[in-house]
Amino acid sequence: MKIVFASNNKNKIQEIQQLLPETIQLMSLEDIGCFEEIPETAATIEGNAILKADYVTQKYGYDCFADDTGLEVTALNGEPGVYSARYAGEQRSAEDNMNKLLTELSTKNNRQAQFKTVITLNYKGEQHLFTGIAKGSITANKSGDKGFGYDPIFQPNGYNETFAELPIETKNRISHRGIAVQKLISFFKNDN
What is the C-alpha to C-alpha distance for residues 96 and 90, in angstroms, rounded to an integer? Predict the structure, then answer.
């Protein structure tokens, strides 16, 4: 079975393809000829995931799923949240985003945070949402070279390493995206 994953983020596509059963093959936006930037104008993570999935289904006619992820920091009232990818500006630099977040937290004692991923699946004419949350804290310094985004400064609860230091298998099992994808996989297994 082939299904569109509404993304051109090769890291994300590879991470999710590794989690899916071999019977499910992902197609990227590029694979279906979608080269335009899909608007992410919703005020919530759920809203953006829905917008992206609906865009592909309505404009290209494919069953698909889309995800949106945000890092929600308690001391910053949930910021950067829905603006996580462009927290430090439209250039969407992970380094700039991490630097800005570390600066914002430099005077805060509470460093609790959570990553939240919402996957919207448009499949056989129905829409399903799957949410994954990974709780943890923001470290004082960047550490590790695996992963992407905020991984070098996010330390999940129960671990002494950041997401960027953990083996990919461990991260996939405990991460927000991993949890949401497991729910998606369970859905497909129960559907067949």
Answer: 11
- Do 38 and 64 touch, CB atoms closer than 8 A? no
Domains (ranges, CATH) in the chain?
2-191 (3.90.950.10)
- Which residues make beta-bridge pairs with 25? 2
Residue type, 96: D
Task: Give the pair of three-digit tokens for residue 45.
Answer: 């993570």
137: phi > 0 → left, psi -120 to 50 → alpha, else beta; which? beta
Half-sphere exposure of 154 (CA within 13 A, CB side): 28
Pairing between strand 126-138 and 112-123? antiparallel
Type of residue at 141: N
> Which residues, listed in sequence order, are joined to residue 154 by a DSSP beta bridge?
138
pLDDT tens per residue across all 192 residues of the chain: 889 999 888 877 887 887 787 888 899 999 999 999 898 899 999 999 999 999 999 999 999 999 999 999 999 999 999 999 899 988 778 999 999 999 999 999 999 999 999 999 999 999 999 999 999 999 999 999 988 899 999 999 999 999 999 998 899 899 998 899 999 989 987 875
Query: What are the CA-CA distances from residue 184 to residues 84, 147, 191 (Å)?
Result: 23, 21, 11
Smallest CA-to-CA distance from 129 within 57, 68, 59, 43 is with: 68
Q: Catalytic: which of 31, 54, 67, 68? A: 68
Whether 31 is catalytic: no
